[in-house]
TrEMBL record:
GO terms for molecular function: electron transfer activity; heme binding; iron ion binding. InterPro entries: Cyt_c/b562. It comes from Tautonia plasticadhaerens. This is Cytochrome C. One of its GO terms (biological process) is electron transport chain.
Amino acid sequence: MRWTRIRAGLLGACCLAVVGIGSSGDAVEARHQDEPPGDRALGLFMQAKLDHAKDVLEGLTTGDFTRVVRGAQALRELTEDELWRVNPNINYVRYTEEFARLADALEAEGQSQDIDGATLNFVNLTINCVNCHTFVRDERVTLVDPDALIR
Ligand code: HEC
């Protein structure tokens, strides 16, 4: 089941991000190489969120505001991509809007070198990541399986 794998991958990736190791691009490529091209593109696109979020964290911890601003802008731009809009559900749209708003705020705080505001918003953004992922997982669990109805 893809989500179990993604959940495990996510957990691992997040833990690694916290200790600052992070999975390399090659590892990500390898993880997706058996997937159909469409899924693979989506996986790599989604993975970019983690890369940019790590950039922001690195910028915050080293006081490199240029990195914070660049990471926030990159995160914001991802929301404009059609690959982001994989789910038409209103809750998904709301999480997306909140994500875009937080990324804009993070960019502005990076520009004005507001370390406290930017750090708080980075935490808010991370909560938004986790909430949207929980929502997407729950929705998968409650989706009706058409094959199950035929029996
Ligand atoms: C609006 C909802 C939403 C938000 C917000 C969100 N994600 Fe995701 N994320 C998804 C969806 C949908 C997938 C893909 C699920 C699938 O492959 O079926 C995904 C997949 C991923 C993956 C797995 C990629 C892979 O290798 O397959 C990572 C890593 C990830 N997201 C990181 C993040 C991070 C970090 C943030 C916050 C900075 C974030 N996401 C915010 C919806 C979201």
